């Protein structure tokens, strides 16, 4: 087991990924198998048959039970063996660990720590999801071949967007604008307002404001230990922005990434995008999805290159800059959280 917070709901899969057959996935360096039971609910088990350790994910679902592909032992959602072909008595050891699971927002969330602490109340809550006037792009997934701390640092670091994403989301005006940082016990946020700037062609069309200048807010949240939420707001310059309602009068997006470590050098990157413009416009959503995928792919390539260099050198960085403040603080808070849990 690596350096992970265990007592937390992690995204394990999109609900749509769990169909008629089992899904095997490595989570927090543990092999896990997910499958649907007879009542449609998802179960998660350690992906090892107690007989000969064959991955249960190689098997099939039979009437809501998971059947090992080798000798046909069947397991229920609690990981208990309920059938052994050719044998009436079931040895007490014939079981595999089960993990608490909750499905919400189209995501299967798994709790890999102490099962008795797995309270659904502690699930991350997704702002505006399912509300009228808001649209969701979900199902986003990339496997990032890098340690999840590299990814958290990337997501807390707006300074790279001007350069790495110059062809996608980069804004040359943002390059010189520093961010402010705030933190609580649960999250850290780096944010900035770019005031009185020109709207992008996209903003112009979506806001329907012609060529008037705009104020653009960017908020980069890291909710410990695994969720990034990037919020952007575009308002006509000078518009009030004290209340949630005033902020929603402009273009508003919430871009979520649910990071689940796969191994020490790879991460499941589930992404979801929530917006209050072009609602119900499937064509716009498809274009937005493709643009987001492209942007995240740019990050993936950098993270992979960094991961390789880190493994080669055993180092993380040689010099610190001012732009590292929020990323370094996020990584420290995470390390502290892991340490506190161990203690
Ligand atoms: S290894 Fe699974 S039933 Fe034998
Ligand atoms: Fe990026």
Automatic annotation (TrEMBL):
PROSITE patterns given in the database record: RIESKE
EC number(s) reported in the record: 1.14.14.-
Lineage top rank: taxon: Bacteria
Gene Ontology terms for molecular function: 2 iron, 2 sulfur cluster binding; metal ion binding; monooxygenase activity
Entry keyword annotation includes Transcription: no
Membrane-spanning residues: none
Gene3D superfamilies noted in UniProt: Naphthalene 1,2-dioxygenase Alpha Subunit, Chain A, domain 1 (3.90.380.10), Rieske [2Fe-2S] iron-sulphur domain (2.102.10.10)
UniProt KW keywords: 2Fe-2S, Iron, Iron-sulfur, Metal-binding, Monooxygenase, Oxidoreductase
Limits of the Rieske domain: 9-110
Annotated protein name in UniProt: Toluene-4-sulfonate monooxygenase system iron-sulfur subunit TsaM1
